[in-house]
Structures are given as structure tokens and as C-alpha cells.
Amino acid sequence: MRRFFASLIGLLLIIPLAACNNDQVQKIRIAEVTRSVFYAPQYVAITEGFFEEEGLEIELTTVPGGDKTMTALISGGADVALVGSETSIYVEAQGSTDPVINFAALTQTDGTFLMAREDIENFSWDQLKDSTFLGQRKGGMPQMVGEFVLKKHDIDPHGDLNLIQNIDFANISSAYASGTGDFVQLFEPTASLFEKEGRGYIVASFGEQSGKVPYTTFMTKQSFIDENSDAVEKFTRAVYKAQQWVDSHSPEEIAKSVQEFFPDTPIDLITSSIERYKNQGSYATNPVLSEEAWNNLQDIMDEAGELPKRIDYTTLVNTSIAEKVISK
User: Which residues, by range, are in coiled-coil regions (predicted)?
Assistant: First the structure.
């Protein structure tokens, strides 16, 4: 993972920023790391017209995997990335001259659920020992939080499990569906869909176990903020409106709002997935990324052996925009 992000630094040095002046910015290209109801406030901001109210046109693209999402941002293929904050740390640790800044938090817990092949009525974490665990990408938030939680329950991820990590992020769910692994971490609505189809059963939530962490944030290059500060503020305001809307509306109402982004998923599964996330406080209610959550993230990365060096909160987190938006 670190070697990969080292290769991205060259892009920062040779690719010019394709940005417009503040009064000309209308379209914002977002690269999201996956398509999940975990990101419901983002979709609500689109369907309920909050971005449109701010005079912004959104072009949303799903780019599976944090490394690929960050490549899209750094190479100029996207203006904003919705991805785990760990990616900005990897880039900064390699000496970036145009740091990637976290400016608006979207989620504040892990968004994955532990699935088992069998419906375990009285699940305990020690039941994972000696099992085959279909893990996530090394150095990514799902895997690091997963290891953090496992160690919390006295399980050595690399010693007590047969840990599989050679499957691309986009193919993990299909690999589990085809019979690989006894346990797996999956996002919603895939987890609920698999449960309905009898492919697996949700037995625990990593979000409930890991505490507050900037799991997924909107981030962009410092140069983009410098040259498009008005657009970034409008973007953040639209996100905040959506967060407040999600906080004050029922899972059923939210599901109807975001349904178009999940055309192959039954509305009842979208609803139940959103309810799970709301119940465990996964959706941030405002875009301010706290220093406590930032430090918790680095502790989790350090525990997983993936923290290249500690990065000060003020170096990669800009809360001034979000604080300005919520103060009005």
C-alpha cells in the first residue's frame, strides 16, 4: 500500500490542476470509493436538490478501492474524492507538494458488518478462530478496523485465522457468494441482500465495535481549495443540508430518496440497511471532522502496522469551511 502511494507523488508534480475560477465552477466531479447506502447523505444531497440549490452540478463516479480513488483525484480525473482518510495520510507521508485535505466528514464509524455462512444464534468473537476469513485490501480502512476489532477480542488476525487478502476490493462480495471464506466483512446493502438470499448472515457490526473514526470523508487537493474556495463552501453546505435531512427523516423516507442509486436492491433492504446505520450512529450529522476521531484513525492504522508516520490534525484536516457552514 505504501509503495503504491509513493508512486502517486509523481503525479502531483507533473499533472496541472484543471480548475476554473471561483465564479466559473459549476460542475464538481466526485469519485466515490464504493456504492453503498453507507453514503446515503451524499445521494440525498443529489436527489433532494441540495447541490442544485447551491448552483452545483454533480458528476458521480464509483471507483472501487481507496488506491484507485486517490489516483483519480491526484491525476485530475476527479475534483473531490469520497474515501477513507487514511489515503490522505499515505500521500502526505510520501512528501506531497499538494496535500490532500479532508474538508467534510460524511461517516463517523466503520460501515462493514461481519457475515457468517451459518445463522449463529449466540455469536461470540472467539468463534472466528481457526476459520477462513475473507479479508479486505491491506492498508484500507475496512481491513485495518477489522484487525483492530479482532485484536480487541484477543484474536490475532494473521495467527488465529486463515486470512485471505489477495482478492480485489470490487470482487470480495462475489468471491464470498461463490463460496470463498467462512466469514467476511461487507457493506450494506450487499450484506442484507446476501442475508435475504441465504448466502450469509449478519452476526456483528464492526461499526459498533470500533468507535468514532473518520471512515469516509470528502477530500480534495489544497490547490483546488485555494482556487475554488467558493465552490468548496457550497459543496460543504449541500452536504450539511443532506446530513440534517437524513438525521430528521425516517429510514423509509431516506430509502425512497436514494433508491435510484440502488436499482437492483429491493426497497425494504435499502430501508433496513439505512436503519442499521442510523441506529449505530454511522452517519455524521455535520461535516466537521473532530481531532479525537482523527487521532483514533491513526491509532487504528498504527495497530495494523500501516501508519507511515503520525500526521498532525491541522496538516490534513480543514474544519474552517465546515464550521462556517454550520454556524449560519
Answer: none
Give the closest residue to 84 by CA, choosing from 61, 67, 99.
Answer: 67
Instruction: Tell me how far apart the alpha carbons of residues 316 and 221 are, in angstroms, rounded to a whole number.
Output: 10
The residues of the chain scoring below 70 in pLDDT are 1-25
Q: How is the chain split into domains, by residue range?
A: 2-109+213-327, 112-210
- Please list, in sequence order, all residues whose beta carbon lies within 8 angstroms of the beta carbon of residue 171, skipping any fewer than 6 positions away: none
| pLDDT tens column, 3-41 | 555 555 555 444 443 444 445 547 999 999 999 999 999
Provide the grid cell at 151: 485484536
| Whole-angstrom distance, CA of residue 17 vs CA of residue 224 | 7
Q: What is residue 8's predicted lDDT score, i.e. its pLDDT?
A: 56
Tell me the C-alpha distance between 88 and 12, whole Å. Answer: 13
Judge whether 2-109+213-327 and 112-210 match in fold.
Answer: yes
pLDDT at 140: 83
Which CATH code is given to the segment(s) 112-210? 3.40.190.10
- pLDDT of the residue at 236: 98
CATH ID of 2-109+213-327, from 3.30.1540.10, 2.60.40.3760, 3.40.50.620, 3.40.190.10: 3.40.190.10
Indicate the pTM of the whole model: 0.85
